[in-house]
Amino acid sequence: MAIVSSAEAGLRAAPRATILQLRAAELSARELEREAVRLVASSPVPVLISSRCDIALAAGAAGVNLPERDIGLEFARGLIRHGLVGRSVHSIAAAQRAEIEGADFVIFGPVWHSESHPNVEPVGVEALSRVAAALRIPVLAIGGVTEERIASVHAAGAEGYAAIRMFQ
């Protein structure tokens, strides 16, 4: 999964990604909707919208990914009935709660140090392995993922990874 901040970034990442997540918290709702509509219309892979169920619906996106402190998954599922609903989490307890509440997948991390979140302590590959072993839903690693670390992600039992810088 590539996490992108614009339709243009998403299209550049699409040849290497299997799903795109549009995350652009600095945009107004109207600007984010415009970006989402453009990306959904032109992307060769499914698009998720970060944190905004309303914009995911309006743009015809494949679903939404919600930060850990965002609205409850049951509320998101009430809106996104036929799409994907994911949750970004930072602990095994939060990952298990997301699964119980109906998440289709979790994004867990940061596994390694991440330039996009420099003040957040990485949890490491062993924590990723514990989360992957504890859940039945897919777990995606995030945070400091590089081409060289992808094998470690899969060896830990994660289904895949989410990245920002790797796709830029």
Task: Describe what this molecule looks like in 3D.
The protein has helices at residues 7-13, 29-42, 53-59, 73-79, 92-100, 125-134, 150-155; strands at 2-4, 20-22, 47-50, 63-66, 84-89, 105-108, 139-141, 160-161. It has 168 residues and is of the alpha/beta class. The protein has a single domain, classed as Alpha-Beta Barrel (TIM Barrel). Helix 7 links the parallel strand 7 and strand 8 (160-161). The radius of gyration is 15 Å and the shape is globular. The chain starts with a strand and ends in a 7-residue tail after the last strand.
Quick summary:
The chain has 168 residues and is α/β, with parallel strands linked by helices.
CATH superfamily, please?
Answer: Aldolase class I
Put simply, the count of helices is: 7
Largest sheet: 8 strands, parallel
The CATH topology name reads: TIM Barrel
The structural class is alpha/beta
- Let me know the number of strands: 8
Determine Rg (CA atoms, Å): 15 Å
Strand and helix map with partners:
Layout: E1 2-4, H1 7-13, E2 20-22, H2 29-42, E3 47-50, H3 53-59, E4 63-66, H4 73-79, E5 84-89, H5 92-100, E6 105-108, H6 125-134, E7 139-141, H7 150-155, E8 160-161
Parallel strand pairs: 1-2, 2-3, 3-4, 4-5, 5-6, 6-7, 7-8
